[in-house]
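Human:
Focus on the backbone:
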Amino acid sequence: MLGLVILLGILVNIPAVQNFLVREVTSRLSAQLKTEVKIDHVDLRLFNSMQLQGALIKDLKGDTLLYAGNLQVRITDWFFFQEKPIIKFIGLEDAQVNLVRTAKDSTWNYDFIVDAFSSAPDTTPKKPSGPSAGISLDLKKIDLKNITFNQVDSWVGEDMRVFAKRIYVDAKNLDLKKHNIDIQELTLNAPTFIISDYASSPLRRRKPWVRSAVYTDSILRWNNDNWKLLVKEVNIKDGTFGVDNPDDKSPIEPGYFAPHHIRFNEINLSLTNTSLVKDSIIGDLTLSTKERSGFEVKKLTSRFKMSPVEMEFSQLDLETNRSHIGDYYVMQYNDISDMNNYIDDVIMRAHFKNTHVSSDDIAYFAPPLSSWKKEITVSGSARGPVSNLKANDISVEAGNSTRLKGSLEMRGLPDIEETFIDFHADELVTTGQDVMQIMPIVKEIVSTVRIDRLSNIRFKGSYTGFINDFVAYGEFQTNLGNLSSDLNFKTNKDVPVYSGSLTTSNFNIGSLFDNSNLSTLTMAAKVDGAGFNFKTLRANVDADIQEIALYGYNYQHIKTNATMARKLFNGSLTADDPNLAMNFAGTIDFNQALPLFDFKANIEKSDLRALHLTSDSVTLQAKLDLNFAGSNIDNFDGTARMYEVSVFKDNRRLEFDSLNVSSHFVDNEKVLQLAGSEMSGAVKGTYSFLQLPDAFQLLLYKYYPSYFKAPENPVIDQNFTYAFHFGDVNKVLKGITHQFGGFNETTISGALNTNGNGNLLLNINIPNATYDAYGVQDLQVRGEGNFNKVNISTSIGKVLSGKNVVLQNPLIIASSSHDTSFVKVDFSSEDTSSLDGFFARVVTVAEGVKINFLNSAFTVNERQWNVTPGNEIYWSKHFLTVKNLRVTRNDQQITVETNEFNPDESKFLITLKNINLPDVIPSQLLTTRIEGITDGTIHITDPTTALDINAALRTRQLRIDNDSIGVVNIDGRYNHLTGEAAFNVLSDNEGKSFLASGKVGLTSSNNQIDGNIKLNNTSISLLNKYLAGYVSELSGTVTGNLDIGGTTIQPSIKGMLTLDTVGVTVDYLGTHYRIPKLKINIDDNLIEFGNFTLIDKYNTKGNANGYISHDHFNKMNFDFDVTGRGFLFLNTDAADNDLFYGDVLADGKVYFSGPINDMQMHIIARPIKGTHFYLPMSDSKDIGKYEYINFKTYGTEVVEKKKKKDDTKLTVKLDIAANPDAQIDVILDATTGDVISANGTGNLQITVNTEGDFTMFGNYEINNGSYNFTFQRLTSWKFDIEKNSSIIWNGDPSEARVNIMAKYSLPKVSLYNLAVQGTQNTDRDKLATRTERVDVMINLRGALMKPDITYSIELPDVGSLAYESGVAAHLKEINTDQNKALFQVWGLLFSNQFLPDDATASAATNVGITGKNSVGQALSAQAQAILNNITGALLKGSGIGVNVNYRAYNVGGGTVENTSYDRNQVSAGITSNLFNNRFRLYAGGDYDWGKSATSANANRFAGDFRIEYLLTPDGRFRINAFSKTDYDVYNLSNRTKSGIGISYIREYNRINELFGQSRRRRIANLPDSLQKSLPPQQEDSSKPGSRQTTKTEK
C-alpha cells in the first residue's frame, strides 16, 4: 500500500501525467457543462508549488466567462506535514472575468455552472467554530497583474468594468486560527473602475425594499469572530474612476463637469495605519485626483472610519484648484445594505468650519459662475438623510459683497416637486452683480430691469412650503430703498394660484427700471389671482401708493385697483395729491378680434409747474372719454375725447377746451377725424399710417430709382385725402412752449394714392411762424406729382432773425423725375429779372449724385457772388470730384477743384483770394464783428474714406469788435485716420503778438492735446466782450507762456502770465481800478494771483490777493479779498443801479468767493468823510390820463433787457458800519422831491443778487439831517431832523419802519389871524399884535412808504403865560385837528402867515391827509383843493363851474441815462349844464412846461372841449363830441385827437342782467336736454323792486 502511494506521488509530480489528468477533467467538465472548459498547461508540485496556464471557461453562448493566463502558488515545502503552512506567493496574470446579464433574461451567464454543481442543502448539525477551529495558515505575498473584471447587467441597467494593471499584497502575518491579519502593504497600480448606469429592462419587476434588521451595539455584525486586522499601507496609484449614462445625449463641453460622463483620473490614494477594531475599520486617508473637466482634488486628508453603522471622515481637509474645505463628514446607517436606500436610510452629518470655496471651482459644475470670481467662506452644520435634510447655523460669505446666515430644512428630496422647504434667512447681504452671476437668467432682463444698480441688498425673511405651494415672507433693504413681501403661491393642476402683499419704502424704481424721470416709490399693494397665461389669468391688484417721485415731484395719496378675468380688464386709479386730483376708470375687453377700450377720466385739479411738467405756471382741468376698438392707429374705430378742458398759464386762461379724435365710415370710406380748440382736420379713404414709411420709400424709388431701393413690401395700398386747419393756435402754443409761436390760420391738405400711376398732392400755408429768435412769414409749400414726376415749391414772404429781415421773398422750386432733378433756390424772388440764389441740376446715380450749378448768383450780407457755369460736383460713396467750381465777387474768389483726369486720386483744392471777411460771415449769426482780408489754400484729400485737410491761410487787417490786431497767419492740418488736428496761429503785431501751436486728437480713441500759447505784450482788451456784465473797460497787456495738454474731455493748462498796467471797472460797484503789475500762475487745479495792488480813481491803494480753484477748468471756485483804508468801494449813480447808489469811501475789506453759480461778494466797510449813499424808495414815472380817453405816452426808448448768464449767480452783501462821516439819502418821492438826508450811526446790511432779490437789515439812528421836499418843483423847504430819529430795515427796503421828527422854523410870523379866529376882542390879546418865530413840526412814523404823518405848530419863544391868550387856545385847537394843521402849515410855508378860518378855507381843509405818502403830496393836494373851492364860491348858483388842476409828471425814464424828463402841467376849464341838464359843455385847456427832449425848456398851451347831449330823458342814449389836445414833449408840438360817438347807459344789479333777454332767446333755441342742464334764470334787476343799481357807460 505504501508503495502504491509512493508510486502515485511520483506519477502526479510528472508534468505529462498532470496535463493528461487536467485534460481528462476539463473534457468531462466541458461535456457536463455543455461549454468549452480547458487548461493549456499545468505544473503541480505537491510539495511546494503550483502553476496553471491558459485556463478558460466559456459561457453557453461561447463567450469568455473566465480566463486566467498564468496562475502561480508557492507554499511551504511539505506543507501538509506542517502545523502552520505558509503560502509564500500567489500570482495571477492576464486574468479576465466577464459576467453578463441581458435585458431579456434575469439569469447571469454563470448561473449554469452554479446549477451544475449545486446539491441538496446540508442539514447536518455543525459544530460551533471558535478560535481553535479551522486551518492555521499564513499568507505572505499576492501579486495580480492585468486583471480585468467586466459585469454587464442590462437587466438592471448597470455595467461595471474594472481593471488593474497590478494588485500587490505583502502580508506580514496571516493567522487564520487566531483571527489575526497583519498586512504590510496593499498596492493597486493603475486601477480603473467605470460604472455605466442606464435604463433597466422593461421586463424587470423591482422587488419591494425591505428595511434591514435593527442591531444593538453589543453585537458585532461584521466581525463576529473578533478578527484583528492591521494594514500598514494601502496605495492606489494612477487610478481612474468613471460614471457614464449612455441615455443622456447632452453635449460634453470641455472645461465643465458632465454628470453623464464623469472621469476622475490620476487617482492616487494612500490609506495608512489601517486597523480593524471590533466592527470598525480605521485609517488615515490621503487622496488626490483630477476630473476630466479640469477640477482637481489636489489633496484630501482625513481620519477615516468605516463600521456597520457609519462611514466617517473626521479631521477632513480637502484642497481643490482654488478651494479649501473642512472639517467633518459622516454617513450613518443601520446596516451597510441601507446604502441601497440611501435617500431615506443613510443619515448624513457634516460640519464645515472656515471652509473656503472658489467660485471658479463651483463653475466647473455651474458654468454661469465662471465670471463671478468670488472666494466663498462656508461654516455651519447639516444633519439628516437626503429625504429629511436639516442645516443649521449656515454662514456663507462670497467675497466682500455677499454673505448669508440662516437655516434650511428640506423634506422630500430628491423629488423636488414633493419636497417641503423651510428656509429662514437671518441675514442675506449681496449685490445685483452677484445676483446676475448666481442666477444668469436675470441677465436676460437687465436691459429693462437694472439689477446691476442694486449695489447693496440686505434680506431677512423665510420661505416655507413646496415649490408649487409656498409662503414667502421677507424684508429687503437696498441702496435703492426698502421693500417687504408676504406671498402665498400654489398650483392647482396647471393653473397657479397666488396671493399676498408687497410694501416698499422710498424705493428708487426709476433707477431700477433705468428711467431718469421716475424716482422713489412708497406703497402697499395686495395681489390675489390665478394663472399667468393670458387666457386663464384671473387676478386682482389693489395698491395704495403713499408717494411716488416722477419728474422730480413726489406724488402722494394714489390708489389703484385692477382686475383681470376672462380676458376682461377692469381698473381704476384715484389721485388725491395737493397738486393733482383725478380719477380714472375703465375696461379693456380682449375677447374680440380687436381689444375694446372704454375708459373715462376726470382731472379735477393739476398744477403742471408744481408737478415739474412745465417750467411755467400751468394748471389743467379736463375730462377724458375713450371708447374705441383697435390695437393701433390703423384699425382704430371709435372716439377718443378730451372735453371740458380748462387750462391756465400764468393765471391767464388758454383758449383750448376740447379735443376729439374719431373714426367712422362715410359712403363706405373710412374717415379719421380730428376736432378741437382752434384745430380741425380729417383723413379720408384707404390709409395705413404704419405703412407710410414704405409708401414714402416707394415714391423715392420712383423718382430716384438708381439710388433708392424698392420697398420690401410689394403691396402698398394707400388712397386717401387729408385736410387740416389750425385757427388761433398761437395762444395754445404759448401754453406749451416758448420756442415755437405763430402758426395761426395754418392749413395743410393733400392726397396720396399708391395705386395705378400714383398721385401726390401737398398744400401747406403758414401765414406766420417763429422758432426762438427766427421767424417766417407767408410760408407756402406746394407739391404735386405721380410715379413719373414730382414738383415741389416753397415760397416765403420773409425770413426773420429777431426783428431783422434776413431774406425777403425767398423761393425754392424742385422738380424730380427718373433720377434727374432741377432745383432753384432764389433768395429774393420779388425781383424776377435776376436770380439771387442757385439753379442746379441734380442727377442721382447708383452710389451718389452729380450736381451742376447752371446759372447762379447769390447775395451774402447784401453783396452779390457769382458761380461760374460749366461746373460739376460728383459725390459718390467712394470718391468726390469737383470740376470748375468758382465763386467770385469783384477781385474776391473762392475756387474748388480736383483732378478730373484721375478721380480716384480723391484730392481737391480750395483757393481763397482777397476774401473780405465781412462779406462772407453772416452778420446775423455772429455777435462778434470780425473784419479782415484772407488769402490761402485748403488741400483736402480722400474725403470719403481717409479725410486729410491741410490749410494755409493769411489774414491781413484783422479786426475783432473794432479792435485792430493786424496780420495773422493760420496753418493747420487734420487727418481722419489718426483723428488728429495740428495748428499754428501766429500774430506778430505790436501789442497783439501771440503764437498758438500744437495738435489735438478729435476722436474717442485719440483725444490727446499737446499745445502751447506764447503771449508777448498782448492786449487784454479783447476779453471785454466775454467778461461783460462783470467787468468792463479792461485794458493792459499780458506776457507769458501756457502749455496745454491732457485730453479734450479733460484739458490741462499750465503756465505763468504777467499782466502790466491793467485797468478794470467792476460793473456792479462802478469802481475803476488800476493794477500796476499782476502775476498769474496756472495749473490744473489752481489759478493763483498772489498779492497785488489795486489803485482807485483817487490814487488810494488797496491790497488784494486770491486764487481760483478748479478741476481742469470745471467746478471753478473763486476766493479773493481786497483790503483798503480810505478806499473807494462803491462809485455808482442812479443810472447804474435803481436799488442803491452813491460813493462809499471807507476803511474795509471785500471778500469775493464761491462757485460761478453762487458767487458771493461781501463788502465790510466803515465809511469815512466823503461817503454819500442813496436809497431810492420810489421813481418819478407818471402817466397822463383824461377823464374818458386814456392816452399812451409815446417815444419811450425800448431798452433791451440784459440777459442773465445761464449758470451764473452773484450775490453782493454790504456790511456798512455807518457813522456821522457818511451821508445817507433816502428818496421817498422823486416826484415831489421828498428826501431824507441824514448823518448818523448804525450797522446796515444790504444783500442783492443778479436774480433781483434785494434785502436790507439794520437800525439807523440819525444824529443830524434834513427832510427836504419840493412843492411841484416851484419852491422847496428844508426841515431839520431832530436827533434820535431812526429808520429800521427788516428785509424788504420798501417796508422799513421810521420814526422821524422834523422841524422847519419861520423867524417872524404875525399871530393876528390866530387871534381873530381865537378871541372876540383882539385889542385885549397883546399876543395877537406880535410877530413870533413859528416852528412847523412834522412827525413820520410807521411804514416808510406809507407813513403816518402828523403836523403841529409851535411857538418856541412864547412863554407859558402867553399861552393863556386866545392865540394859544386856537393854536391848540389847530394842533388837535390834522386837517386844520395841514391847512395852516400850507399857509405858513407858502405865505409865511396863518390863514383866516373862513368858510372857503374850511371847505378846503376837508381835503384831508389820508392816502398821501409824503408831505409834498399832501401839500400839493391841499393847494389844488383851495384853488378849486375859491372858484366854486365865486360862481355859486350860476350853473357854471371852474376846474383847476396841477400835476407834475415824468416822461421817458427806464434805466438809460438822460432819458427821463420832469415836466409840469396846469389844467383849467369851465363846465356848464343847459336845457334841463340835457346839454352839457366843457371848454378849457392845459399849460405844459418843463424840460423836453431837446436841451431847451419848452412851454405850450393846448385847448380842448367836450359836448354831450342826452337823446332820451332818462339819459340812457347819448351823443358825444370831443376835441382833446396834448402837448408832445418829443416833437415840441400839439397833438390833437377828436371824435364823435354814441353811448348807452344802463343801471343793473348783476352783470348778467345786461344780457338777460338775449340769453333767454338763446336758451329757447337749445335742445331740451341742454336747457335742463342750465342753472335757473336770475330776476331782471331793471324791474321794480331791485335794490342795487350801478351806473355804467358804454
